[in-house]
Design brief:
Length: 526
C-alpha cells in the first residue's frame, strides 16, 4: 500500500535503527482474552500514591464497580474488571524487575459479567466544562497507557497554562510491540474522538498525530477516519527510528521545538497523550466506562502463536500465554515491555497492569544473556546515540562513584532510559542500570530530606505552641493576682460602689454616736 509519507523537517540527535520484529504479531487482529479464573489487581497501577481499597474479602462486586479509590491528587481509581467475589486482599508478586510484591485485590469472576451502574455518557462533551470532563477521567481511573502510567486527569490539568498543540503519540517505536498499531487499524475513529475530547480539555487548537512509517495500515486507517475534513487534526508520518516515541523526541520531530532540560511539554505549550489513552478517554466520556481492560501484545519466538489480546486488568500473564498456544521450546526469558526499555520477569504468575503493553517470550537468540561488562574504553559511541544530548559515560562514572551531585549536574534526570547507549556500548556495560540506581538513590535521599524537614517543622511548631500556652497561663495568673491585691487593699475602681461604701460608713458612725448619747452619764448627787 502506498503511504503518503511526509518527511519530517526535523530529526532528533542520536537514536538507532534497529530490527523492529513487529511482523510476529502485527497482522494478528485483537481478540478478547478468555475470562481468567482469578484477577489480581495491584492497588498501585500508576505513578503516584497507591489507591485505597474500598472492598474486603467476601464482598460481591459488579463489573465496573469502584473497588479502590485514588488516595491523593497523583493517584488513580481502580475498578472491578468483571463481576464476582473478592477472595483476598494481600501482598502478592507483581510485574516488577525486582520481583517485588505489592498489595493486591483478588477477584474470583462469577462469569455473569453483571455491570455496575455507570455514570451517564457525556455526548455533548464539546459544550461541557473541561473540569467536569477531567473529573470523569479521574473517576474512570485513566492513566497513560504508553507505559508512563501517569494519571491522565492530572496531566490534562493545564489550568493557567496556554496550550496550543495536543500531540497524539502513535509512534510505538520499541521493537516487537504492536498493540497501538492494531488499535489504530481497528479503532482509529475511537482514538480520534478521544483525541478531540482531550484537545477540548486542554484547550489546544490543533492535534498532531505522530506515527512511524513502519505502520502503513494504521496510517491508512487514521486517514480514512478523518473522512476528508481535517478538523484541525494532522497525521504526520515520521521515519522509523528508535526512540521516536519519547515525548521530547516526538515533539521535536513534529514541530522542531525543544522541550527544555528537566522541563515538560507544557512548558512549550504542548501536551502528549498515547493512542490507547485517547481511546480509553472516549470510552469513559462517551459510554461512562472505567478503564478495566487494555490491548496486550504477546510475542517472541518463545510463544507458539504471537498475537494481540484485549485482556482484563489483573489477568495472569500465564493465562494469556496459554491462550497464545503456550511456550515453544525456545523460550528463554519473559520480558515485560519492549526489549529496549522493558525488563525480565521472574515469573509469569504476575498480573496484567494498566501499563502492561507487551510481554515478550524471548528465545536465547532474541534476548541473549549479557556478557560480563568490561572497563569503559571511552570510545564515545554512547554519546553519539544519546537522543537527550547527554554524556552517558560521564554519568555512568559519577553514578558508579556515587557522586550523585555530579551525575545531576550532567543532567541525569534528562535521561529517558531509552537504552541506546547500552545497546551500542562495546564494553557491554549495563549503563541504564547505573542511571536507574542513581535516580533511585537521589529520590530516596530527597524523601529522607523531606521527612527530616517535616519533622523539624513539627518540632518548631510544638515548641512555639508550648511557649504560647505558658505565656497565656502566666498572663492569667498575673491578672488573678492583681485582682486579689486590689480586693485586699479595699479599693474599688467603681465610683458607685465607693459612694455606697462611704454612705454605709457614715450611717454606722452616726449610729455609734447615738448609742453614746443614750448611755447613762456619771453618777450625780442623789
Ligand atoms: S560506549 Fe561504553 S565503552 Fe564507549 S565510552 Fe560509552 S560507556 Fe565507555
Ligand atoms: S539511556 Fe539515557 S543516557 Fe543512554 S542514550 Fe538513552 S537518554 Fe541517553
Amino acid at each position: 500500500m502506498a503511504v503518503d509519507l511526509t518527511p519530517p523537517v526535523w530529526d532528533f540527535h542520536g537514536g538507532l535503527h534497529i530490527p523492529d520484529h513487529k511482523a510476529l504479531s502485527a497482522d494478528r487482529p485483537v481478540v478478547e482474552a478468555t475470562l481468567p479464573s482469578r484477577l489480581q489487581l495491584a492497588l498501585q497501577q500508576h505513578i503516584g500514591k497507591s489507591a485505597e481499597a474500598l472492598v474486603k474479602a467476601g464482598d460481591q462486586v459488579l463489573k465496573g464497580q469502584l473497588i479502590a479509590r485514588a488516595s491523593d491528587y497523583v493517584s488513580a481509581n481502580l475498578h472491578a474488571p468483571t463481576s464476582g467475589r473478592v477472595v483476598e486482599i494481600a501482598e502478592m508478586p507483581i510485574a516488577h524487575p525486582s520481583g517485588l510484591s505489592a498489595p493486591c485485590i483478588v477477584i474470583e469472576p462469577d462469569g455473569e459479567e453483571h455491570w455496575a451502574e455507570l455514570p451517564e455518557p457525556i455526548t455533548n462533551w464539546a459544550e461541557t466544562d473541561p473540569a467536569e470532563l477531567r473529573e470523569r477521567l479521574r473517576w474512570a481511573g485513566i492513566v497513560g497507557l504508553g507505559g508512563a502510567v501517569f494519571p491522565t486527569s492530572v496531566k490534562t490539568n493545564v489550568t493557567g497554562r496556554a496550550v496550543d498543540t495536543l500531540i497524539i503519540n502513535a509512534a510505538e517505536c520499541e521493537p516487537y510491540i504492536t498493540c497501538d498499531d492494531r488499535l489504530l487499524r481497528e479503532q482509529a475513529e475511537e482514538v480520534l474522538e478521544g483525541a478531540r475530547i482531550l484537545r477540548h480539555i486542554v484547550g489546544a487548537s490543533r492535534i498532531l498525530v505522530g506515527i512511524e512509517d513502519n505502520k502503513p495500515e494504521a496510517i491508512a486507517s487514521l486517514r480514512e477516519a478523518l473522512s476528508g475534513d481535517d478538523d484541525g487534526i494532522e497525521i504526520r508520518v515520521v521515519p522509523t527510528k528508535y526512540p521516536s516515541g519519547g515525548e521530547k523526541q516526538l515533539i521535536y520531530l513534529l514541530t522542531g521545538v525543544e522541550v527544555p532540560s528537566q522541563g515538560l511539554p507544557l512548558d512549550v505549550g504542548m501536551v502528549c497523550q498515547n493512542v490507547a489513552t485517547a481511546a480509553s478517554v472516549a470510552d469513559a466520556v462517551l459510554r461512562g466506562r472505567p478503564l478495566i481492560s487494555r490491548i496486550v501484545t504477546i510475542t517472541g519466538q518463545g510463544v507458539s502463536r504471537p498475537g494481540n489480546l484485549r485482556a482484563l486488568i489483573g489477568t495472569p500473564v500465564s493465562e494469556l500465554i496459554a491462550q497464545c498456544g503456550g511456550y515453544t521450546p525456545q523460550v528463554h526469558k519473559l520480558i515485560m515491555g519492549g526489549p529496549m526499555m522493558g525488563f525480565a520477569l521472574h515469573s509469569d504468575a504476575v498480573p496484567v497492569a494498566k501499563g502492561s503493553n507487551c510481554f515478550i517470550a524471548a528465545s536465547a537468540e532474541e534476548a541473549p544473556d549479557p556478557p560480563p561488562a568490561k572497563p569503559c574504553i571511552r570510545c564515545g559511541e554512547c554519546v553519539k546515540v544519546c537522543p537527550a544530548y547527554l554524556l552517558p559515560q560521564q554519568i555512568y562514572w559519577y553514578a558508579r562513584a556515587r557522586d550523585f551531585d555530579q551525575a545531576q549536574d550532567h543532567h541525569l534526570f534528562d535521561c529517558i532510559e531509552c537504552g541506546c547507549c547500552a545497546y551500542v556500548c562495546p564494553a557491554r556495560i549495563p549503563l541504564v542500570h547505573y542511571y536507574r540506581f542513581a535516580k533511585t538513590e537521589i529520590w530516596a535521599s530527597e524523601r529522607e530530606r523531606q521527612k527530616a524537614e517535616h519533622a523539624r517543622r513539627r518540632h518548631d511548631f510544638r515548641e512555639a505552641r508550648i511557649k504560647r500556652l505558658e505565656a497565656e497561663r502566666k498572663a492569667r495568673l498575673r491578672k488573678k493576682k492583681e485582682a486579689l491585691e486590689k480586693k485586699s487593699a479595699g479599693t474599688s475602681d467603681d465610683p458607685k460602689k465607693a459612694a455606697i461604701e462611704a454612705a454605709m460608713k457614715r450611717v454606722a458612725a452616726r449610729k455609734a454616736a447615738q448609742q453614746n448619747d443614750k448611755a447613762p452619764g456619771p453618777q450625780g448627787d442623789n
